[in-house]
Design goal:
Cofactor (chains A, B): Mg(2+)
Oligomer: homodimer
Largest sheet of chain A: 4 strands, antiparallel
Number of helices of chain A: 2
Largest interface: A-B, 39 and 39 residues
Distance between the termini of chain A: 12 Å
Radius of gyration of chain A: 13 Å
Number of strands of chain A: 5
Strand order of the largest sheet of chain A: 2-3-1-4
Shape of chain A: globular
Subunit structure (chains A, B): Homodimer, forms a heterotetramer with a Cas1 homodimer.
CATH topology of chain A: Alpha-Beta Plaits
Strand content of chain A: 25-35%
Structural class of chain A: alpha+beta
GO molecular function, one term (chains A, B): hydrolase activity
Protein name (chains A, B): CRISPR-associated endoribonuclease Cas2
Helix content of chain A: 10-25%
CATH architecture of chain A: 2-Layer Sandwich
Number of domains of chain A: 1
Pfam families (chains A, B): CRISPR_Cas2
CATH class of chain A: Alpha Beta
């Protein structure tokens, strides 16, 4: 399934959280990652992130779409994602 | 259609861009908005934002999903969106 993650976390945890996310998804923008994961991998990612975040102050939003073809992506302005951006 | 917008723009333009986005979508996180728009309203939003952004440095990613029911949303940690968050 298609996964889009946006996060708003304490600056002290950003680097650690990004390192974890990069093992599962592609960085596309300052606080956004995207890619395709199984439900199992997403649950694994969730538990790894919960070891790092403060659930009372940090916020991670996870959008999932079962069929990646149902998602259209447009970029206004410059595209910041890396070349390994798989969408 | 369901619209998710994430943006990474110059700090001088953030307030203006947020004010425009708030007229079309709901703020859900530091640099993320979501909601439902017609293609026409999305094009209108695009032209208004292009009057403000520097397309060479600012980045706005727009994900659209034609059927809002195809999108699942999970929040890990705290939910930062306002109560007018319609998802």
């Amino acid at each position: 399934m298609k996964v889009i993650i946006v996060y708003d976390v304490n600056i002290e945890r950003i680097t650690t959280i990004r390192k974890i996310l990069k093992q599962y998804l592609s960085w596309v923008q300052n606080s956004a990652f995207e890619g395709e994961l199984t439900e199992g991998r997403l649950e694994e990612l969730k538990s790894r992130l919960y070891e790092v975040i403060d659930p009372n102050t940090d916020s991670i939003i996870v959008y999932t779409i079962s069929n990646p073809r149902w998602v259209d992506k447009r970029v206004w302005g410059v595209e910041k994602g890396g070349t390994d951006n798989i969408l």
